[in-house]
C-alpha cells in the first residue's frame, strides 16, 4: 500500500484509530488500558511513528465501544507488509523486502542463531536483553522477526545457506529448555531442501568471519545486495565492490567449515552434550 495524499500507511492507520477513539469519547489512557498496551505505545501508533501489532488490532476490533466494525482490521490487512516493516529500525527496514524477493540468501553468524531460524523463545531471550526495551516493544519485535520466516516455507521458498560459528551452538540464550528447542528447530529447518546449515568448529581458531555477521541476497533480475551488522546499527550494502568483498569473505569461511552432514552431527552432539 502506498502513501495516501502524502501520508504514510502508518499515519493513515494512526489517524483512523484516533478517530474511532475520539468518537467513542475515550481518552488515550482509557483506550490504552482497555486494549492492554502502554499509553506511550498507543500515542506512537496514533502519531504514525510505530506500527500496531496484529493482536492490538484484534483487541481494538473487539472493543464494542470503539465501533470499528472491521474497518481497522481491513486497513491493517491491506497494509500488513508495510506495517510489519515499520516495526524494524530505519537501517534495517528495507532489508526484509529484499529477503522476500531474493532467489538465495547467504548468512554468516558468529554469535547467535540467525533471525530467520530462531524460535520464539530464543528470539525473545535475545531481544529482552536489550537495555530499555518495554514489554510492548518486545512482543512487537519478536512477532516481526518470526513473520520474516514465512519466506522459507511458502510455495516458492527462498534458498537459505547459513554458516555458523560453533560458539553459536554453545552460547546459553535463555534457559536450557529454550536452547534445546532452538537447536532442535535449527536441525529441523536444516533438513529442508531449500536450507543448508554449516558449522565452523572451534578448532578452526581465528577465521575471516570474526569481523562480524553479514547476509548476501542474490536476485534473478537485479544485482546482489548485502546487509552487515555494526556495533550500534546495521547497513544495507548495494555498492557492488562492498558486496564482492563480503562474497570473498564467504569464500574464506567455506574453507574452514564442516561439510553439511558433519555440521548436522555437530549440532546433534552439542544438544546431547550440553542441552539435554
> Globular, elongated, flat, extended or rod-shaped: what is the shape?
elongated
- C-alpha Rg, in Å? 21 Å
The major sheet is characterized as: 6 strands, mixed
Report, as a whole number of angstroms, the end-to-end distance: 47 Å
Proportion of residues in helical segments: 40-55%
Q: Give average pLDDT, whole number.
A: 88
Q: What is the count of β-strands?
A: 6
Strand content: 5-15%
Q: Write out the strand line-up for the largest beta sheet, numbering strands in chain order.
A: 3-2-1-4-5-6
How do the helices and strands follow one another from N- to C-terminus?
Answer: HHHHHHHEHHEHHEEEEHH
What structural class do the secondary elements suggest?
alpha/beta
Low-pLDDT segments:
1-6
Written account of the structure:
By secondary structure, the protein is of the alpha/beta class. The protein has helices at residues 9-23, 28-34, 39-47, 54-61, 71-78, 80-86, 95-101, 120-128, 135-148, 166-170, 176-190, 240-254, 260-274; strands spanning 104-109, 159-165, 195-200, 214-218, 225-229, 234-237. It has a six-stranded mixed beta sheet with strand order 3-2-1-4-5-6, sandwiched between helices. Helix 2 (28-34) crosses helix 3 and helix 11 packs antiparallel against helix 13. The longest helix is centred in the first third of the chain and has 15 residues, at 9-23.
